[in-house]
Amino acid sequence: MFFRNLTLFRFSPAISNDLDRLDEALGDHRLRPCGPLEMGTKGFVPPVGRGDEAPLTHAVKACTMVTVGGEDKLLPGSVVNDELQRRVQKIAEEEGRKVGGRERKRIKEDVLNELVPRAFIRSSRQRAYVDKKNGWLVLDTSSRKSAENTLTQIREALGSFPAVPLAPEEGPRVLMTDWLANGNLPAGLALGDEVELRDPASATGAIAKCRRQDLDGEEVKEHLRNGKQVFQLGLTFDERMSFVLGEDLIVRKLKFLDVVTEELGDSHPDAAAEADATFTLLTLEVERLLGKLEEWFGLPRPAEA
């Protein structure tokens, strides 16, 4: 249940009250099986447990987790085009005529109607939780598109959910470059062993990526002297978690260190108790980190809905 990435949105205190009906609202938006001629479906699935009777939310104190599930048919375009071309060529050979655009379109529809029901189905799961006390929507993904799709599902279920992207008052790229170049890291924060540096002068500027490297070394400093800035930076927070922070303020490669995971223990009576303990620990640790991100970069919580 530990998240591996954090994509973040914020919402106002007024919205927090509306989230009390989240479990009820999701009931009409459960994931249903993909129909024979459908390419995909999306809906909510239980974050903990399985079956139609399992709840669609899992709450600990002010934090509530949801999971958006998906079923997508795997039908490569090349397979459709190959079958279409085979049928068009067969008509040309047997009937001695050229297939027009309208007929070609009809043949393609026939191909899809035959192949879609036989396509393999790929299942997906996207976890997220809302922190009603602090106004965070936290998604376990580094993909902005996936995050937006999940946010759309929540909005459709609630009717409205005006969570907004982060609006930092301090430029992340400038601040992280200062951390790396001058060692001006906030208390509790330490450099990791990964960085991505880019020349900000143009979109096609030089890029330097370093992994498993001493970030205080001369090679990194030389890139900084040549004008490159930090776009992603490996960090350790309070010796409890490591991650890579991007200039988009997406937290990637999140890993809780042994001192955290050892606090879980292994004496949980059942799966539900273990899920409660893990989610509690996750949200407490992430709450501390997000509070610091809010402080370092100036991430205001919306005042109104």
Q: Could you give the distance between the termini?
A: 30 Å
Query: Rough shape?
Result: globular
Low-confidence stretches: none
Mean pLDDT: 92
Number of helices: 9
Structural class: alpha+beta
Number of domains: 3
Biggest beta sheet summary: 7 strands, antiparallel
Task: Work out the strand percent.
Answer: 25-35%
Q: Care to describe what's here?
A:
The protein has 305 residues and is α+β, with helices and mostly antiparallel strands. It has three domains: 112 residues, no CATH class; 41 residues; 126 residues, no CATH class. Helices cover 36% and strands 26% of the residues. It contains nine helices and twelve strands. The strands form two sheets. Strands 1, 2, 3, 4, 5, 6 and 7 form a seven-stranded antiparallel sheet that branches. Strands 9-8-10-11-12 form a five-stranded antiparallel sheet. Helix 3 packs across helix 4. The longest helix has 27 residues. The protein is globular and about 80 Å long. The two termini are 30 Å apart. Belongs to the RdgC family. May be involved in recombination. It comes from Dyella kyungheensis.
List the helices and strands and how they pair.
Blueprint: E1 7-10, H1 13-18, H2 22-26, E2 40-45, E3 58-60, E4 63-74, H3 77-95, H4 101-115, E5 120-131, E6 136-139, H5 144-158, E7 164-165, H6 172-182, E8 189-198, E9 207-211, H7 218-225, E10 229-237, E11 241-246, E12 251-256, H8 258-261, H9 271-297
Antiparallel strand pairs: 1-6, 1-7, 2-4, 3-4, 4-5, 5-6, 8-9, 8-10, 10-11, 11-12
Helix pairs in contact: 3-4
